[in-house]
Amino acid sequence: MHKKQKIKIIYFYISVSHLVMILTLSTFSLLWSSIVGMLYLLQQQPAVAYIMTTTPSLASAIRTSNSLKYESPSLETSIQASIQMIIKSIESVDTSTAITNNINTMQHYLTYENPIYQIKMQYPADWEKKDQGLGGDNVVKFVLPQQRFPSLFVQTEHLDSSKLLQEFTYDKINHLRQLFLDFDIIEQNLTNLAGNNAYKIVYTFTLEQISYKRMDIWTIKDDRVYIINYLVEKGEYSNYLPTIQKMVDSFEIVK
Questions:
Q1: pLDDT digits (tens, 9 = 90+) for 141-192
Q2: Is the terminal CB of the chain with fewer CB neighbours within 10 Å at N or C?
Q3: Using alpha carbons only, what angle is made at residue 92 by residues 90 and 98, rounded to the nearest 5 degrees?
Q4: Assign residue 133 a region: left if phi > 0, alpha if psi is -120 to 50, beta otherwise?
Q5: Helix or strand holding residue 204 (H, E)
Q6: Quick one: DSSP state of residue 236?
Q7: Which of 36, 127, 35, 18 is nearest to 83 (CA)?
Q8: Which whole-number Å values give the CA distances from 93 to 32, 61, 140, 197, in the listed order?
């Protein structure tokens, strides 16, 4: 009888442990969903990017935790099996894709049009549009309110000669090398902008002891070159990239 009672107690512990695990996982899932949902509504992309990186860390923390105490080896085996199931569930969630898709879906965009330069593009409704007093070849600037970065500029300039894209690219990169301290190209390739062949370059540089990362995309149509550049502090580059890419993809030359 004593042995049977002991077995019953062990099974009771196992059942209770499973129930606690299920309740813990359910509470965690509800809390996690609430936090992510709130971030979507607030459109706090840097915080969202932080969550993207914490899901794998959470699974790792659970895996390596030694804080649990067990009444018996059989109870330990059962609970550890439940933990492994929780870890697999956490690791199987494609947090990055889900969050990126929701940001793009929930973010409202406005349309900017410039009849003088015959360009059009979309930009987030919660960003500021500045198209006055920019100077130089700048047509419009988009930036988060009361912040310097991230920023997206659209520039256009008249070409005196019928330069090909390859020639302009060669001159442009040489100019950037001379202009910026610690200029370092991260990525460069042919791409497409507004249905035209284009060139993209991603690079880092230092200005006033701050490291920046910038993406420039340019294309030539008729006698004009059109340039889009995205600038932000180096560590923040990927946080805003989904939004920037949507803006770039929406760019049109409406000649």
A1: 999 999 999 999 999 999 987 789 999 999 999 999 999 999 999 999 999 9
A2: N
A3: 95
A4: left
A5: strand 196-207
A6: G
A7: 18
A8: 12, 16, 39, 37
Torsion of CA 53, 56, 62, 66, to 10 degrees: -80
The amino acid present at 140, given as its one-letter code, is: V
pTM for this predicted structure: 0.61
Cβ 78 vs Cβ 11: under 8 Å:
no
Partners of 99 in beta bridges: none
**Residue 51 tokens, joined:** 């969550």
Joined tokens for residue 255: 């000649």
Angle between helices 95-106 and 237-250 (to 10 degrees): 50
In whole angstroms, give the CA distance from residue 144 to residue 127: 5
- Helix (H), strand (E) counts: the chain: 6, 10
CA 142 to chain centroid? 17
Nearest CA-CA partner of 118 in 200, 191, 222: 222
